[in-house]
Automatic annotation (TrEMBL):
The species this protein was found in: Bacillus cereus
Stretches assigned to the Pesticidal crystal protein domain: 140-327, 342-545, 556-685
Family according to the record: Belongs to the delta endotoxin family.
Name of the molecule in the record: Crystaline entomocidal protoxin
GO biological process: sporulation resulting in formation of a cellular spore; symbiont-mediated killing of host cell
Length: 798
């Protein structure tokens, strides 16, 4: 009977999904709790089964007890030496990362909605996740653990109750918005609901979620409330009228970053909010990063630093990168129409180095018994600096001996590798002499490494399974696998980032892919001269970052500059934290190319650059067989400490015609080397959106860097914007036009919402930090003329 139990529950789960998939949103809660119970039944069965299997079999035993000061995984099997237990840096509340990844993907889906009204269903799913996963508690716990700072009971309770109240009120607002759109309520009710929620959200952000002394603890919650506030300000702009002329402002901000000048319109309030929220989040993130760095110089301090960088990237910075998309002027949003935005995150996140640790973490690769020279600085200096985007094609792994004392070749280990990338570049790490073992590097969503040690003095990786999204697995093994002998201990360790709906990613549910892998010493010294005492790190990019630059008709396609196919005399520099990745700096006579692929039908495009420049710069932009000399206005007085308002948008004169070529080149023809390019945008010509493109030609960030972001709108004809974009609600707007959204959003709502957050990320390597940047070895094949700037406190988590 017990064997039939999981089959029965899985069948019931499928039945419930099928039964409820056509039902309205009101039944989603029933579905969520039903599926939740069934999932728990399956987990209970799996637990009972694992306990039964492990009663007498040491080789498959589950490690259940570790010292109280260790965040340990409880799902790693080990060999028959119980003293050789490793631990993995698992967050007790790392389910929050899965929740936030799910939230991020839902926000991206919202940006792909065909209209402002079509996003109601996505926003309802977002609200459902925030409320159901208790985001306030989860994220507070995560940050509290990272920065070793507690939140008093009263403030914690206030955070929880306020988040619950906010999501309840916002969900009611969405229902009012839907009723207004479908003609089931009058405009006065809608406007009253919008104003009440807008003021509530602004007050909460300015007064509670930015409390002095608690900024970092509340930062992930701040960013979620900020996104809701930006969405409601956007609604006020696109549904504007005499009764939605300007917001009411009365509160006093807790911090100077959130000080708001009076706004003459909701559009101005929206642009101001995007600016100050972006700057506040990135500033607080960097403040926390500095605090973590100043704790000490040990290997453990680096792991904590790296954990902070990774987790705050996922929970804060990734969301900040989508703030600008709520601007109706920049991205052509109207009541009846908006172009979906295809955006890509180019940052790289690094999981912990794969290296052996003992049970309590007191000894291991970052604290070896022999000649411990591993420090924060030695690890950090091994992390590669910013580079152009990498897409793995193949990995060549080189194996050499690893030993101690009288037997220098007692075992073998991975001691170097060459990554061959999609664009033809090759990156070298460690020792690369001898015959390599080649494996496919494409579309890897998880890596299970076998790590070993000799007397906790020598360390290495003796095997690795690379799991591909195709369902296949590529394997690396040393000749004598697994390593054995006196003083040899080994065990598996798994590197990945959670899926959207699962604690451990699968081929059908993953959020990140392996972008680079590197053998590093991290400061470990060889016990035997000529050998390499080392660990292996893995860098991951978000699945939104695609190998090809595919331009989709009727979409705004945004391509990060770091996806260049060729560059010369350029420097890749760290992004400020708000850009979703790094930047390409054009030195004098610098050039980089972007190669694109166009999907049918044939559509012509306008090109827009997002950039920052100190003083005016002359560039030549070549596409469709013609050169387009352009002058970029100055946007800032310095490229150091770039803030949101220091970036500008430049609309390139001319039309990109796909039939005339698929290459875009940008060349700096001036002597000014202080120009950085963030993104290149392809905006379709001949669509409704382009009526406003010329109007936004002056929509650049302030040329006087001391001015506020509000100035950007001064040259824009607000009245004309309303006439061009949005027919007045009395005449041109058909209230029942989007009636199908009353129930149609059901199919886009995440049916398995419970699985998104109710997970146990046992195998998630919690301190697998963003610490990516490690110096390339001298044989690293740099592209011509390009240098990479490295400094940890400038590095945007990659």
């Amino acid at each position: 009977m017990i064997r039939l139990y999981p089959i029965f529950t899985k069948i019931m789960r499928l039945f419930v999904e099928r039964l409820l998939q056509e039902y309205t949103a009101e039944l989603r809660i029933l579905k969520v709790y039903t599926l939740h119970i069934l999932d728990r039944c399956i987990k209970i069965y799996d637990y009972i089964r694992s306990e039964k299997m492990n009663s007498y079999q040491n080789e498959n035993e589950i490690v259940n007890v570790v010292p109280s000061n260790v965040n340990a995984s409880n799902t790693y099997p080990f060999t028959n030496n119980p003293s050789a237990i490793m631990f993995d840096e698992i967050s007790p509340s790392s389910i929050g990362l899965g929740t936030l990844l799910s939230l991020f993907l839902d926000y991206k889906s919202l940006l792909g909605s065909p209209s402002i009204t079509g996003g109601i269903g996505f926003l309802q799913s977002i609200i459902g996740i925030i409320a159901g996963a208790n985001v306030a508690t989860v994220t507070i716990d995560d940050v509290q653990r990272l920065i070793n700072q507690s939140l008093d009971t009263y403030t914690r309770q206030q955070a929880e109750s306020r988040m619950n109240s906010i999501t309840n009120d916002y969900n009611q607002y969405l229902l009012n918005l839907r009723d207004y759109i479908n003609g089931r309520t009058d405009r006065n009710n809608f406007v009253q609901s919008l104003r009440m929620n807008e003021q509530r959200l602004r007050n909460e952000l300015d007064s509670f979620f930015s409390l002095r002394g608690r900024e970092l603890l509340l930062l992930p919650n701040f960013v979620q409330v900020a996104l809701l506030h930006l969405a409601i300000l956007r609604d006020a702009v696109v549904h504007g009228g005499p009764d939605l002329e300007r917001p009411f402002v009365s509160e006093t901000a807790q911090t100077s970053f959130l000080t708001r000048p009076p706004s003459s319109s909701f559009q101005e309030a929206l642009s101001t909010s995007i600016r100050i929220y972006s700057n506040y989040c990135t500033q607080e993130y960097h403040n926390g990063l500095t605090q973590m760095r100043n704790r000490g110089n040990s290997g453990r301090d680096w792991l904590n630093f790296n954990a902070y960088r990774r987790e705050l990237t996922l929970s804060v910075l990734d969301f900040v990168s989508i703030f600008p998309f709520f601007d109706p002027i920049l991205y052509h949003i109207t009541r009846n129409f908006s172009l979906p935005i295809n955006s890509q995150l180019s940052r790289v996140i690094y999981t912990n180095p794969a290296g052996f640790l003992n049970a309590n973490g007191s000894e291991g690769w970052y604290a070896p018994r022999h000649n411990n020279t591993v420090t924060f600085s030695s690890i950090e200096s091994n992390i590669p600096g910013p580079t152009t985007s990498r897409f793995l094609q193949n990995i060549d792994i080189f194996t050499n001996g690893l030993g101690v004392g009288a037997n220098p070749n007692r075992t073998q280990s991975w001691q170097g590798n060459i990554n061959s990338n999609f664009n033809g570049t090759r990156d070298h790490f460690g020792l690369t002499n001898g015959q390599p073992r080649g494996i496919s590097g494409q579309n890897i969503f998880r890596v299970i490494s076998t790590v070993h040690t000799l007397d906790l003095r020598s360390f290495g990786v003796s095997g690795a399974d690379f799991l591909h999204t195709t369902g296949q697995t590529s394997q690396y093994r040393v000749p004598q696998f697994p390593p054995s002998g006196i003083g040899v201990h080994h065990g598996p360790i798994s590197q990945f980032l959670p899926g959207k709906r699962s604690n451990i990613p699968t081929a059908n549910d993953y959020t990140h892919l392996l972008s680079r892998v590197a053998n590093i010493t991290a400061g470990l010294q060889p016990v035997v001269q000529g050998q390499r005492n080392s660990v292996v790190i893995h860098g991951w990019t978000h699945r939104s970052l695609t190998r090809e630059n595919i331009i989709v008709p009727n979409n705004i396609t945004q391509i990060p500059a770091v996806k260049t196919s060729f560059y010369s005399n350029c420097t890749v520099v760290s992004g400020p934290g708000s850009t979703g990745g790094d930047l390409v700096k054009l030195n004098a006579n610098g050039r980089f190319d972007i190669q694109v692929q166009f999907q049918p039908p044939q559509t012509n495009y306008r090109i827009r650059l997002r950039y920052a420049a100190v003083s005016t710069s002359s560039i030549n932009i070549t596409f469709s067989g013609a050169a387009h000399p352009s002058t970029l206005p100055s946007t800032t007085s310095s490229l150091n400490n770039l803030q949101y308002e220091h970036f500008g948008y430049f609309n390139v004169v001319g039309t990109f015609i796909p039939s005339l070529g698929n290459m875009l080149s940008i060349i700096n023809i001036s002597s000014n080397s202080n120009v950085v390019i963030d993104k290149i945008e392809f905006i379709p010509v001949g669509t409704f959106a382009n009526h406003s493109l010329e109007a936004t030609q002056e929509y650049n960030y302030p040329k006087n860097t001391n001015s506020t972001y509000n100035q950007i709108y001064n040259n824009y004809d607000q009245k004309n914007m309303e006439n061009t974009y949005q027919p007045t609600y009395d005449n041109g707007y058909e209230q029942n036009h989007y009636n199908y959204y009353d129930s149609g959003y059901n199919d886009t709502y995440n049916q398995n919402i419970v699985n998104t957050y109710d997970q146990e990320y046992n195998n998630y390597n919690q301190n697998s930090n963003d610490m990516y940047n490690q110096k390339y070895t001298s044989n690293y094949n740099q592209n011509s003329g390009c240098t990479c700037k490295q400094c940890y406190n400038e590095n945007y988590p990659k």
